[in-house]
Design brief:
With 486 residues, the chain is α+β, with helices and mostly antiparallel strands. Among the domains are: 1-86 and 150-223 and 316-382, FAD/NAD(P)-binding domain (3-Layer(bba) Sandwich), CATH 3.50.50; 386-485, BFD-like [2Fe-2S]-binding domain (Arc Repressor Mutant, subunit A, Orthogonal Bundle), CATH 1.10.10. It is 30% helix and 21% strand. It has twelve helices and 22 strands. The strands form five sheets. Strands 1, 2, 9, 10, 11, 12, 19 and 20 form an eight-stranded mixed beta sheet that branches. Strands 13, 15, 16, 17 and 18 form a five-stranded antiparallel beta sheet that branches. A four-stranded mixed beta sheet has the order 6-7-5-14. The two termini are 32 Å apart.
Length: 486
């Protein structure tokens, strides 16, 4: 239904950066909204993020990337505890395989120290193998960054949006922006769900940030999409390494990595290829071979038979080479938050706080009294997860809700109660349930649990199975009513 509503702040984009901004803005007593074109939060670049919380030694000093990466890294332990999001500060290792490359490690050590990264240390071969016995034998030295970590990026974005919403921010999904018009006092946003009017608009539209900016006459930057293929391995080999393993970087990326995930898998990748299309997410046999061959030389024990999923993400790199976080030169009411490529995930909470300060200063300068939200609560309730329960905890959960005794996803050990909760929290697609619960992310990739999930969604949403989609418009799973399949 079309509608019009007035706000003080409207954020365009529901990825990990947009939702971080929304959560920060919720600390102010303002009328705020977040608009996301997809059916669910985190369905864009965030969905395919590798989940690394960077330490900050990769970024050039005196850049926004360096400053906000280090600041964001420090925020993660409290942030993820408050939002009940899986996070592990397991450390990062950048390794070299030739004596001639060890000078480069020292350069990154020096760069990290200039950026304020704590506890960096160069390790020799024996020290490396003592920490990570499955590193290739030809490793010569490495740079250890204990402050690095891993997080579940889509769970973080969803949790940030939920926390923002509980603190008063309107979250509007399936809402595409068609046009923007500005006056001296406001911006009108024309969308597929009607018009919104706002004093300040924040452009966190990721891959499409330059398109959004141009709607207000801003042609000050260009997004240059960079595609990366990634490959997920079975949990059987999840303990081959404990830390994320980096090679020395290439000119346009941090290289192909071996990445422990927050849920016990290993992930390999990504590639880094400049592309023109912003919706080309295919994976390739060539990409898999390149990644597999490279990672096999870094870590022993990686085998092709353990591959369970492949996917690709597109990074929203820009023609500036650094994060763009600034008021538009063309519209004083537009804040561009663009070009947020790696380490954007790490920097996201710090970006939120930076944008919060910009909003407060802008409105105050216009004579508007900006007060803190007296009811802001940074904490989300802890969720019950079958996979993490002890026997006693499970008995208690089942006594209150018998659906905890009904296992839907065997690979990831997800109960019917968790599926129902995800739907109540806002999941409207199969992928929405998957990102909130991990049902369908295991070895069989949904082969056993998908029909059961569809049946639960049909019941809880009171819609036919044929209306359920994988990720929104154009992705129907069953193009006809087929009760016999369930």
């Amino acid at each position: 239904m079309a509608f019009a509503k007035e706000y003080d702040v409207v954020i365009i984009g529901g990825g990990v950066v947009g939702t971080a901004i929304a959560r920060s803005i919720a600390k102010l007593n303002l009328r705020s909204a977040l608009l996301e074109k997809n059916m669910e939060i985190a369905f864009g670049t965030t969905k395919a993020n590798s989940g690394i919380v960077h330490a900050g030694f990769h970024s050039q000093p005196d850049t926004l990337k360096a400053k906000l990466c280090v600041e964001g890294n420090k925020m993660y332990p409290t942030l993820c505890q408050d939002l009940d999001v899986p996070f592990l500060q397991n450390g990062l290792l950048m390794v070299s395989y030739q004596k001639s490359d060890e000078a480069n490690l020292k350069e990154y050590l020096s760069q990290g120290e200039k950026n304020g990264v704590p506890d960096l240390k160069i390790l020799d071969r024996d020290e490396l193998l003592a920490l990570e016995p499955n590193l290739a034998n030809n490793v010569s030295a490495g740079l250890l960054a204990p402050s690095g970590g891993i997080v579940s990026p889509f769970e973080l974005a969803i949790a940030q949006s939920e926390n923002a919403q509980t603190n008063g921010v309107d979250i509007v999904c399936d809402c595409s922006v068609n046009d923007l018009t500005s006056t001296k006092d406001s911006v009108t946003i024309s969308t597929t769900k009607g018009q919104f009017q706002t004093k300040i608009i924040i452009n966190a539209a990721g891959l499409f940030a330059d398109n959004i900016a141009r709607l207000l006459g801003d042609d000050s930057f260009r997004i240059k999409p960079r595609k990366g293929e990634e490959y997920l391995l079975d949990k059987r080999v999840g303990n081959l390494v404990s830390r994320t393993i980096f090679p020395l970087p290439t000119p346009n990326s941090k290289g192909i990595l071996v990445i422990p995930t927050a849920h016990g898998n290993l992930m390999l990748g990504p590639t880094a290829n400049e592309i023109t299309a912003r919706d080309e997410f295919s994976t390739t046999a060539l990409g898999w071979e390149k990644i597999y061959n490279f990672c096999q030389k870094m870590v022993t024990g990686i085998e092709k038979r353990d591959l369970i999923a492949s996917f690709a993400g597109i990074r929203a790199a820009s023609d500036r080479g650094d994060f763009i976080i600034e008021f538009s030169p063309s519209c004083e009411r537009l804040i561009n938050v663009a070009g947020i490529e790696s380490p954007g995930l790490t920097a996201a909470p710090a970006i939120g706080e930076m944008v919060l300060k910009m909003v407060r200063e802008k409105l105050t300068a216009e004579g508007i009294t900006v007060l803190d939200n007296p009811n802001f609560n940074p904490v989300l309730p802890k969720r019950l997860r079958l996979s993490q329960m002890s026997g006693t905890e499970l008995d208690a959960a089942i006594s209150k809700d018998k659906r905890f005794a009904h296992v839907i996803c065997r690979c990831e050990l997800v109960s019917e109660a968790e599926i129902v909760e995800a739907i109540k929290r806002g999941a409207r697609t199969l992928d929405g349930v998957k990102l909130r619960t991990r049902a369908g992310m295991g070895r069989c990739q949904g082969g056993f649990c998908t029909p059961k999930i569809l049946k639960i969604m049909s019941r809880e949403l009171n819609i036919p199975v044929s209306e359920i989609t994988k990720r929104g418009n154009g992705s129907k799973l069953i193009p006809y009513t087929a009760k016999e399949l369930l």
